[in-house]
């Protein structure tokens, strides 16, 4: 517990509670097109003391955490950012990049004393120190609750996310908001899905029946060895999906589909993976059929991922130490190919309803390493503005991100996108829609 009883924290929490975003509800179909926002982002004017909030970014010397710190600094320059990590040399380099309102803290996320010391006098912590697969604890969240510090993580593992959710009552008891899976995918993709479902219920006579998440990333998306480790670890997990309300289990990297991601990406092969948004969307948005697929480029990486699931036993791929050995083996090759393939990222979310309504949302960016930072920053800013209630929430839960705050969150996350549309029929966004006659497209 903080020595000074967290007076600054209480003041900020009160301000956050009073400053809930009151923007108008999202319109049924809106689009945000790309502009040169990576270097000139839209500044965010946080209210009162939230403008000078002190944030700790764990994993801040890595690709995802570093990108998040940079995005927060660009969006709201008055924020005080503490870069948390183990490597002081890398930390000092990041602080030099961020400028005067930043500092480095040496932190070991496996040491509760180290975590609580780092969170002293911090208003919000961002946990970007993955991978989250096979993690045995939620130390960062527990330390956040102990020190009454708001929390966001970029978890992409269902087991970790459910463990985090089990701390809901403890977080609510000390009046702190916490969001798990608050990155790009899952994270922004969850909010896109929630908006599709909300619009369908407002505008359609049918009921939402099928929700499908499709993701494409060129190479590792420039996101480094942690993403590579995450991919390998996911190949060791049986895929959980839902069909007509029933849970089904499938082989990882199976069930390939060729999906049209629209302009700038086109059609790409994607395969089943065990991702947390499938369960959270099924349970929270109450859609009976839900699945998630992912694909990469060049095409031979997909072949390689499929071969690994067939040749290596699942126990091997679930062993973090063995996966780290694989990462060390493949990382130089992957980096070389990334230099050629680039790091484009695209998300497509499809919703089909019982009355035949079919709507799509698409998010495409040239650089995953930039986009993931703005996506995570959007969740952080939403909490600072008071859009989250005390407790532990998934992004699609209205207690986590208020319905009226979703539009501004998506606008912030989509900075620099080359294609971002919400709630459109497929023929309006696909590269080669089919005409069935009389100007009707499917």
Protein described:
- The chain has 442 residues and is an alpha/beta fold.
- It folds into 2 domains: 7-26 and 37-182 and 370-413, NAD(P)-binding Rossmann-like Domain (Rossmann fold), CATH 3.40.50; 188-367 and 422-436, Dihydrodipicolinate Reductase, domain 2 (2-Layer Sandwich), CATH 3.30.360.
- 37% of the residues lie in helices and 23% in strands.
- The chain contains 15 helices and 19 strands.
- The protein has helices at residues 7-18, 63-75, 88-98, 112-118, 139-146, 158-165, 168-173, 188-203, 225-234, 276-284, 299-311, 314-317, 320-341, 368-384, 406-413, and strands at residues 30-31, 54-58, 80-85, 102-106, 124-127, 150-153, 177-179, 208-218, 239-243, 246-250, 257-260, 267-272, 289-297, 345-353, 358-365, 391-393, 419-424, 435-437, 440-441.
- It has an 8-stranded mixed β-sheet with strand order 1-17-15-14-8-13-12-11. Strands 4-3-2-5-6-7-16 form a 7-stranded parallel β-sheet, with helices on both faces.
- α8 packs across α15, α9 crosses α13 and α14 runs antiparallel to α15 (406-413).
- The relative contact order is 0.17.
- The model is unreliable at 1-39 (pLDDT under 50).
């Amino acid at each position: 517990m903080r020595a000074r009883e967290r007076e600054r924290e209480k003041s900020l929490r009160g301000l956050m509670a009073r400053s809930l975003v009151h923007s108008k509800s999202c319109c049924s179909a809106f689009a945000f097109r790309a502009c040169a926002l990576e270097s000139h982002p839209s500044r965010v004017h946080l209210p009162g003391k939230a403008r000078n909030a002190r944030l700790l970014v764990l994993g801040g010397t890595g690709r995802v955490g570093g990108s998040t710190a940079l995005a927060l600094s660009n969006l709201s320059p008055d924020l005080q950012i503490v870069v948390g990590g183990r490597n002081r040399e890398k930390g000092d380099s990041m602080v030099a990049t961020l400028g005067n309102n930043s500092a480095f803290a040496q932190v070991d996320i496996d040491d509760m004393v180290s975590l609580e010391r780092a969170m002293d006098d911090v208003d919000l912590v961002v946990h970007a120190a993955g991978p989250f697969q096979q993690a045995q604890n939620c130390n960062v969240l527990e330390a956040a609750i102990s020190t009454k510090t708001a929390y966001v993580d970029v978890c992409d593992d269902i087991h970790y996310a459910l463990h985090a959710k089990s701390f809901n009552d403890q977080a609510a008891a000390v009046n702190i908001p916490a969001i798990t899976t608050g990155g790009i995918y899952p994270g922004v993709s969850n909010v896109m899905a929630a908006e599709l479902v909300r619009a369908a219920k407002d505008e359609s006579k049918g009921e939402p029946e099928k929700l499908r998440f499709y993701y494409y990333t060129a190479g590792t998306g420039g996101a480094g060895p942690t993403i590579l480790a995450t991919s390998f670890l996911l190949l060791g997990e049986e895929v959980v999906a839902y069909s007509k309300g029933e849970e089904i289990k499938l082989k990882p990297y199976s069930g390939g589909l060729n999906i049209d991601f629209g302009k700038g990406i086109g059609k790409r092969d994607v395969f089943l993976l065990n991702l947390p948004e499938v369960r959270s969307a099924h349970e929270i948005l109450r859609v009976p059929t839900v699945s998630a697929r992912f694909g990469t480029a060049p095409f031979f990486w997909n072949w390689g991922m499929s071969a690994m699931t067939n040749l290596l036993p699942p126990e091997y791929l679930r062993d973090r130490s063995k996966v780290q050995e694989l990462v060390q083996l493949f990382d130089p090759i992957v980096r070389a190919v990334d230099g050629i393939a680039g790091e484009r990222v695209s998300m497509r979310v499809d919703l089909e309803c019982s009355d035949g309504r079919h709507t799509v949302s698409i998010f495409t960016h040239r650089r995953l390493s930039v986009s993931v930072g703005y996506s995570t920053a959007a969740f952080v800013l939403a909490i600072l503005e008071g859009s989250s209630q005390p407790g532990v929430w998934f992004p699609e839960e209205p207690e986590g991100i208020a319905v009226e705050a979703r539009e501004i969150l998506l606008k912030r996350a989509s900075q620099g996108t080359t294609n971002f549309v919400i709630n459109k029929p497929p023929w309006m966004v696909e590269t080669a829609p089919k005409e069935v006659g009389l100007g009707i497209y499917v």
